[in-house]
Design brief:
Number of strands: 13
Distance between the termini: 102 Å
Helix content: 40-55%
Radius of gyration: 32 Å
Largest sheet: 6 strands, antiparallel
Number of helices: 14
Shape: elongated
Strand content: 15-25%
Structural class: alpha+beta
């Protein structure tokens, strides 16, 4: 009899153990099924609660739910009773505590939970949001950084929160300390920060400070920031940033801007301080040719339009403008190239010089940039084809040589092109 009792107890334990193991095996893939299996563990209850909360977060566009479904609370409590160190169960109970208005108790729960497992995103998200509400930017940024480093569904929401925090006064030094630690989420942050007009000034100041500390960022994001600043008319801020990003492209001159070679060779310049090629049309297209170091233009008969533009700074005086042609197909005799110089801060101030290519390698014209109140100019290259047939040609460079030295004595100038 004793042997049968021993065997019976062993079989019972084996069955319980087997059901528990089976429940553990399926709890990650199907928590709803796992909690239906007899003798399931706390992880199954936690997983079921996890599913409910995750669905609430998805429906709330990544935001933590302000009201916790009773079923999630019940399952989290059962999971906690069976496994007090289950971090997700503790997180759900913390959300429930916060939803009932007990913020200090919730903070204690979440802080303890983070110590149990730093990979618990809900706890860090709540602590970050709570710190932001308390204007504790240091704690908020630290927690948001930990969340973003793990790349998850909450990343977009967290990036949006960071952009909102960057709007605040005196936030820039804290962001400098945060971004000095390299992380893969930085490019997405810069993309988000430059898309928000309310953050633009602080984003530029932040980038200026980081550039002074050797912070590296893909040129694409610097170009976006510079272009957005100029689009918003913040030319002085754009210039300050560009000075920090490309100090070697600036040369001081006590009297006048030096000769500038506005070539189409890609070097260390960044748009809009390098040529921005216009979007291709059906009748007109252009692109930078790295092999020929020029701007290749294809234009149908009777077509015309802008093919490229760029920003120049501190050009004041009368200049000889020289256009150099690298190559052309036959029939360029009726091709005209217009260079238009428009004051970036006052569009009524402008001058234009036109060139007729006629298969020549270069042509020269004169442009007047004497307006004392204008420091920034947009240079636009426009191609006009009076031929019947399509024409292909390559522009090599545009050079500006001063005829009249300016500004007057006693006034200094800096050539942003650094040529």
């Amino acid at each position: 009899m004793r042997r049968w009792l021993t065997w019976g107890a062993g079989l019972t334990l084996a069955a319980v153990s087997g059901l528990n193991s089976f429940s553990t095996a399926v709890e990650r893939t199907s928590p709803v099924l796992a909690v239906k299996i007899p003798f399931h563990g706390g992880g199954a209850e936690s997983g079921a609660a996890n599913d409910i909360i995750r669905q609430n977060i998805i429906e709330g566009d990544g935001l933590l739910p302000s009201a916790i479904p009773p079923e999630a609370v019940s399952r989290a409590r059962k999971a906690f009773y069976r496994e007090p160190t289950d971090t997700f169960a503790v997180a759900v109970l913390g959300l429930h505590t916060a939803a009932n208005g007990m913020q200090l108790q919730a903070q204690s729960i979440f802080e303890a939970n983070v110590k149990l497992g730093r990979r618990q995103i809900i706890s860090q998200a709540w602590l970050a949001d709570h710190a932001a509400r308390q204007n504790d930017l240091t704690a908020a940024l630290q927690n948001y950084d930990l969340i973003l480093r793990r790349r998850n569904a909450a990343s977009a929401t967290v990036l949006n929160r960071l952009v909102q925090l960057l709007r605040q006064e005196n936030s820039v030094p804290l962001f400098v300390r945060l971004l000095q630690r390299p992380s893969s989420w930085h490019p997405e942050f810069w993309e988000a920060a430059t898309s928000d007009n309310l953050t633009l000034d602080n984003a530029a100041e932040l980038r200026i400070r980081l550039a002074g500390r050797g912070y590296a960022l893909d040129d694409r994001y610097d170009s976006i920031l510079l272009s957005k600043l100029t689009l918003e008319g913040k030319f002085l801020m754009a210039e300050m940033l560009y000075r920090k990003l490309r100090p070697q492209l600036f040369t001081a001159s006590s009297q006048t801007a030096r000769r500038a070679d506005l070539s189409f060779i890609r070097n260390d310049e960044i748009e809009p301080y390098f040529w921005i090629v216009a979007p291709e049309r059906g009748d007109l297209g252009a692109y930078m040719n790295s092999k020929s170091d020029g701007l290749d233009v294809s234009i149908l008969g009777g077509a015309g339009g802008i093919v490229a533009r760029r920003l120049i700074t501190d050009f004041r005086g009368v200049y000889d403008a020289r256009l150099t042609l690298a190559r052309s197909s036959s029939g360029t005799g009726a091709i005209r190239i217009d260079l238009t110089f428009t004051c970036a801060t006052d569009s009524s101030i402008m001058d234009k010089v036109s060139f007729s290519i006629r298969d020549k390698s270069s042509s020269t014209g004169r442009v007047n940039l004497l307006a004392p109140q204008c420091r920034y100019y947009w240079v636009e290259v426009q191609a006009i084809n009076a031929n019947r047939d399509a024409v292909d040609f390559t522009l090599k460079e545009i050079a500006l040589s001063p005829r009249i030295q300016s500004p007057p004595k006693g006034e200094s100038s800096t050539n942003i092109m650094g040529q």
